[in-house]
């Protein structure tokens, strides 16, 4: 049976979910945040999954209307401020991947607080990719390495794939499985380094409809896949 340590979800379709119901986009995001909470709890009860990465805001999402960005930032802050209590019981640890700029100090400090409050939790690690871009992460890691070279802390021969991985935003196992909701079939700059050997599932449900049953079905599908990592089947 394939191992499933790291699941990564591209949360997509909140806007279309709302449109289909004659609602405004923010209602889709609110519904999405409620489903996200359910999915996190559900995943935390699956003993094989160690990390759940969630793409909730890309660097490109700042191009959306000010109203929508403001709504999402407020929703994040509100959600993060009440989450640590909720996650204590389930021992869930929250971390973030992404750049600080141009997040406001207020949003950034709500993220740091949540990380601090859950840092000793030993259960599922939830990695929120917020103001995240996969190319930006690779560039940021390269800059750290360039500095170390300049300072004479490492030599060129030290730069291996394993070493490079340690300079990413967080030290996490490679992604095993990427799930994208809403039927779109693209990667949108998500965890580009970490997905090298991942399996993919593009599923039609809009995220606010992607419930525990859909999640379980997705996981079942993963276990039926045959991963070879470039090798041949024995
Ligand atoms: C994608 O749907 C969703 C987002 C860009 C935001 C994700 C946010 C949430 C799930 C809710 C808030 C999360 C937390 C942690 C409180 P879309 O807007 O791109 O949908 P569309 O493609 O149908 O327009």
Describe the overall structure.
It is globular, with a radius of gyration of 18 Å. Helix content is 42%, strand content 15%. It has one domain (6-133, 174-223): Decaprenyl diphosphate synthase-like (Undecaprenyl pyrophosphate synthetase, 3-Layer(aba) Sandwich). The protein is built from 7 helices and 6 strands; from the N terminus they run βααβαβαβααββα. It has a 6-stranded parallel beta sheet, with helices on both faces. The chain binds farnesyl diphosphate (FPP). Farnesyl diphosphate binds at residues 11-16, 29, 32-33, 36, 56-57, 61, 72, 75-76, 79, 182.
Short description:
With 234 residues, the chain is α/β, with parallel strands linked by helices. The protein is built from 7 helices and 6 strands; from the N terminus they run E-H-H-E-H-E-H-E-H-H-E-E-H.
Cα-atom Rg, whole angstroms?
18 Å
What does the average pLDDT come to?
95
Strand order, biggest sheet? 3-4-2-1-5-6
Q: Bound small molecules, which ones? A: farnesyl diphosphate
Strand segment count: 6
The profile of the biggest β sheet is: 6 strands, parallel
Helix content: 40-55%
- The termini sit apart by 14 Å
Strand content: 5-15%
Structural class: alpha/beta
Q: What is the name of the CATH class? A: Alpha Beta
Unreliable stretches, pLDDT < 50, 5 or more residues? none
Helix tally? 7
Query: What sequence of helices (H) and strands (E) makes up the elements?
Result: EHHEHEHEHHEEH
CATH superfamily: Decaprenyl diphosphate synthase-like
């Amino acid at each position: 049976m394939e191992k499933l340590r790291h699941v990564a979800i591209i949360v997509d379709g909140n806007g279309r979910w709302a449109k289909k119901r004659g609602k405004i986009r923010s209602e889709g995001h609110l519904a999405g945040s409620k489903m996200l909470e359910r999915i996190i709890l559900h995943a935390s009860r699956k003993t094989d999954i160690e990390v759940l990465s969630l793409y909730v805001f890309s660097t490109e999402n700042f191009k959306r209307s000010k109203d929508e960005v403001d709504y999402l930032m407020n929703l994040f802050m509100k959600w993060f401020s009440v989450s640590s209590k909720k996650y204590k019981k389930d021992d869930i640890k929250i971390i973030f991947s992404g750049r600080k700029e141009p997040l406001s100090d207020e949003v950034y400090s709500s993220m740091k607080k949540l990380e601090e409050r859950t840092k000793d939790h030993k259960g599922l690690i939830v990695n929120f990719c917020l103001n995240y871009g996969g190319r930006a992460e690779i560039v940021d890691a390269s800059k750290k390495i360039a500095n170390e070279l300049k300072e004479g802390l490492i030599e060129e021969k030290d730069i291996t794939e394993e070493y490079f991985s340690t300079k990413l935003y967080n030290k996490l196992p490679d992604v095993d499985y990427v799930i994208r909701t809403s039927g779109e079939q693209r990667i949108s700059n998500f965890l580009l380094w970490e997905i090298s050997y991942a399996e993919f599932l593009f599923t039609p449900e809009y995220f606010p409809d992607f419930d525990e049953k859909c999640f379980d079905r997705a996981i079942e599908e993963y276990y039926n896949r045959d991963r070879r990592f470039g090798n041949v089947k024995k």
